[in-house]
Amino acid sequence: MHSKGMYVTYDVTKESGKRVVSAMARCGDCRVPTYSPVQSNQTYSILMPSFLVDGGDGFTVFKDKSIKVITLGNCIRVCRA
C-alpha cells in the first residue's frame, strides 16, 4: 500500500501484523515539513479508497468500529483513527 506524508520501516521477516518497526507522520500544520513518531493517543486523518475501508485485500483493520469514516463520493473515504 502506498503512503504519503509518512515514513514507515517494515521487517518483512516478521509475521503479518507485527512487521512495522517504526512509523513517522508528517506534521499537517507545519510550514516546513517535519516528521515525528506516530503516537497511539493521537488522531490522524487518512484518505483512502472505499475498497480498502471496506476490508478489501485483507485490510480488515479499517473496519474497526473505533475508526470514524467519512465518505467523499463513491470511491474515497476519510478515516479518523
Automatic annotation (TrEMBL):
EC number: 3.1.3.5
Recorded coiled-coil stretches: none
Domain of life per record: Eukaryota
GO cellular component: plasma membrane
InterPro entries: 5'-Nucleotdase_C, 5'-Nucleotdase_C_sf, 5_nucleotidase/apyrase
One function term, GO molecular function aspect: 5'-nucleotidase activity
Catalysed transformations (reactions): a ribonucleoside 5'-phosphate + H2O = a ribonucleoside + phosphate
Family: Belongs to the 5'-nucleotidase family.
Protein name (Swiss-Prot/TrEMBL): 5'-nucleotidase
Organism: Timema bartmani
Source species taxonomy: Eukaryota, Metazoa, Ecdysozoa, Arthropoda, Hexapoda
